[in-house]
Amino acid sequence: MEILISRTAFPVQALGPGTRAAIWLQGCSIRCAGCVAQDTWGTPASSRRQVDEVLDWLACLDEVDGVTISGGEPTDQPEALQALISGIRRTRPAADILVYTGRPTSWVLGDGRPSIAGADAVITEPFVRTEAGYLPLRGSDNQQLLALTPLGRSRYVDTALPDRRRIQVDVVDGEIRMIGIPTPGVLAELGRRAAAAGLSLRGTSWQD
Ligand code: SF4
């Protein structure tokens, strides 16, 4: 099945417990003001992949404690998302699956539930710039972390999540990629420090 993919990464330590694989789906119809991943909004043909390609990549990785699916808006591709989650369940039965969505909780637990069936935890609700805060794994305080399975409850509710958010920085093909949820003011500070060092940030995935 075809799926639009922005990128994948491993190992990831900043988007959930343990050592994780992360998969960002390409395309977002929600388009929250202040989104830091605006490069994932469009749906270029170059992002077309097959779900099996992603699963083959996942199968070749070393120890994977969990898989984080983000975007973009994963539920914009409901059938592909469901195929991906089902495939991860088969490929990595011990890994927890965390899905980020900007959809409302009421939708995720109602009409949207089939698209995320098999996920252990989901983070719901759009990013709201005026509510940007410091909650673990969430960009704004309106966003909700829901555990959907016993594994999800054990990893996201019963075990304390780190109270400090982490940003992981990778350099891939000449691009600097930041993985994680930045806390308020961090990106502006990054721009100031880069300017002070004589560097200009070009092609950022966020607006000032
Ligand atoms: S925060 Fe998520 S849902 Fe909102 S615009 Fe960005 S990618 Fe889309």
TrEMBL record:
Protein name, entry field: 4Fe-4S cluster-binding domain-containing protein
Record keywords, A-Z: 4Fe-4S, Iron, Iron-sulfur, Metal-binding, S-adenosyl-L-methionine
CDD domains assigned: Radical_SAM
Cofactor (UniProt): [4Fe-4S] cluster
Biological source species: Kribbella karoonensis
The UniProt record lists the keyword Transport: no
PANTHER family (alphabetical): ANAEROBIC RIBONUCLEOSIDE-TRIPHOSPHATE REDUCTASE-ACTIVATING PROTEIN, PYRUVATE FORMATE-LYASE-ACTIVATING ENZYME
